[in-house]
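Review form for a predicted model. The reviewer records the input and the model, then writes brief findings.
Reviewer: anonymous (R2)
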Amino acid sequence: MSTTVKAAVFTETGTPPQIRDLVLPDPGPGQVRVRIAAAGVCHSDLSLSNGTLAQPWPAVLGHEAAGTVDAVGEGVTSVTPGQQVVLNWAPPCRDCWFCEQGEPHLCKHSMDRTAVPYAQLPDGTPVYPGLSTGAFAEATVVPERALIPMPEGIDPAMASVLGCAVLTGWGAVNNAAAVREGQSVLVLGLGGVGLSVLQSARLAGANPLIAVDTSPDKEELARSLGATDFLLSDSTLKKAVRGLTGGRGADHAFEVVGKGAVVRSAWDASRRGGQITVVGVGAMDDEVRFNALELFHQSRTIRGCVYGSSDPAQDVPVLADLARKGELDLATMITDEITLEDVPDAFERMRQGKGGRSLVRFDT
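Model under review:
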């Protein structure tokens, strides 16, 4: 048996998707079929589509999503049909060395499924799930461990951004960098993840909280989500940040663009002994250079941060509670609600640095 749904199917690198029928098999042992309520359009989807990240074709991209369990396979016990869930695009195996060390975000097997077809076109052509998930479709089939029961009191569409943008941003601030109240924070890049870093730093009590982007149109949005200051990303950035931080530079800088030049800007705008957290996904050939003396003399710490260094099963309920209390604003981050056909336009907005999160909604 199988189910046919509409999906945005990408056939090769650098080309827009086609809206086509996708044939999903019934869920096998340990698998679950989920009807998607909404899927956020993440910069990682753009990176997959343009070849920055490797992706076998044809594929259905989209990995930040929430929906309702439609059917379960043999042996599934944690969710039931009709239950609302948030998707986890990097589900940990819980058995590898990294998982046993308390680092499920680095799980050795979390990405195994990306190289395995999960569906097919009507002519039998196998189709791959982008980042294990394939959420730019009316439904998808994923392993049971890739699902987090949706906490009560959260709009299913808004809950989709909990699965990537918000979790990644909140985790970068709290799990990776451990920002403390009163520390200065610099956020470079105000897309969906950057806006989540901004909100999370506000909740952590950062002050000043400096937002940086290439677009002056982002200032109002940044300030509404907690920025105390807004700067344009240009040659004066280092001096401007020092002027806001007692001449020292930022205690914490978060790079949320995925560009070597922005990583370098984050480094230069940080204080001696400061911390730089690289959240953006950059290209393999985009290098960053440091000299040996500055590494010693500046005594800064630079780290990468995968998926917010998080354990989604533990952290998503915390985020949902913050959203229910009104402390975490999910709706303001979403600047465009779109259909599947509008995904290429959302990609173009990201390329141009416009807007916050675009959300593909299926429940309308």
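Findings: The longest helix spans residues 312-324.
Further findings: The chain has a mean pLDDT of 95.
Recommendation: see findings above.
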